[in-house]
């Protein structure tokens, strides 16, 4: 008898699932690209879900399987702001709460290209801002729900508020970009906010 290892036969079910998942990702990306182009050219009010679907050759029913609105499609807003991997890492984290939360939120900052595209589109089409703000509010609630698993409600609320405020600070001062990991930049923003507690007023004019 030969000792040569014979490769195990491929799992047809796993292959089929893999193909379906790739197809879903391709459809989502195509819908996003079509919505981005149309909204950028025509504005949000001038673009319809039907136009987006026609560009991708799918039905409106299929569209709403991927995005709740044309604004969400144009901005490529995911259903959840927390990846399964990020949630698992936070649940397994040890040590201080805020640095662990910075790791969680900072990971979403590292897709620089997507972040720049989103910011540029909102600047060109400010009518998208309400949809983005609503999404961010939902993401904040998702962070709070996750952090409550590892901290008391009051501490969770304070930690999320502090970290999201730090995110706003580094976005506005331009340090949200760059080569360093998002978590490190975010933690610096937290430290900047905390340090502001001891800033003294300038002398009155």
Q: Would you mind describing this structure in some detail?
A:
Keywords: DNA-binding, Transcription, Transcription regulation. Residues 1-25 are annotated as: Disordered. With 205 residues, the protein is an all-alpha fold. It has 2 domains: 12-74, Homeodomain-like (Arc Repressor Mutant, subunit A), CATH 1.10.10.60; 84-198, no CATH class. Helices cover 67% and strands 0% of the residues. It contains 10 helices and no strands. The longest helix is centred in the N-terminal third of the chain and has 31 residues, at 12-42.
Oligomer status: single chain
Approximate strand percentage: under 5%
Percentage of helical residues? 55-70%
What is the approximate shape?
globular
> Helices and strands: which structural class?
mainly alpha
Termini separation (Å)? 96 Å
What value does the Rg take, in angstroms? 22 Å
Number of domains: 2
In the predicted model, the low-confidence regions spanning at least 5 consecutive residues are: none
How many helices? The count is 10
Number of beta strands: 0
Roughly what is the average pLDDT, rounded to an integer? Answer: 87
String of helices and strands: HHHHHHHHHH
Largest sheet: none
């Amino acid at each position: 008898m030969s000792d040569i290892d014979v490769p195990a036969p491929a799992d047809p079910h796993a292959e089929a699932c893999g193909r379906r998942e790739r197809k879903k990702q391709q459809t989502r990306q195509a819908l996003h690209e079509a919505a981005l182009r149309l909204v950028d050219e025509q504005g949000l009010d001038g673009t319809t879900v039907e136009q987006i679907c026609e560009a991708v050759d799918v039905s409106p029913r299929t569209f709403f399987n991927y995005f709740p609105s044309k604004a969400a499609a144009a901005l490529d807003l995911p259903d959840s702001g927390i990846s399964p991997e990020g949630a698992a890492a936070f649940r397994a984290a040890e040590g201080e709460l805020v640095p662990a939360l910075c790791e969680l939120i900072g990971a979403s900052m590292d897709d620089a290209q997507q972040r720049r595209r989103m910011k540029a589109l909102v600047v060109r089409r400010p009518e998208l801002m309400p949809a983005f703000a609503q999404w961010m509010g939902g993401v904040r609630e998702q962070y709070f729900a996750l952090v409550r698993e590892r901290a008391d409600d009051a501490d969770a609320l304070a930690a999320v508020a502090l970290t999201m405020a730090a995110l706003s600070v580094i976005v506005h001062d331009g340090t949200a970009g760059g080569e360093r990991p998002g978590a490190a930049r975010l933690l610096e923003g937290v430290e900047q906010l905390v340090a502001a507690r001891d800033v003294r007023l300038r002398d009155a004019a």
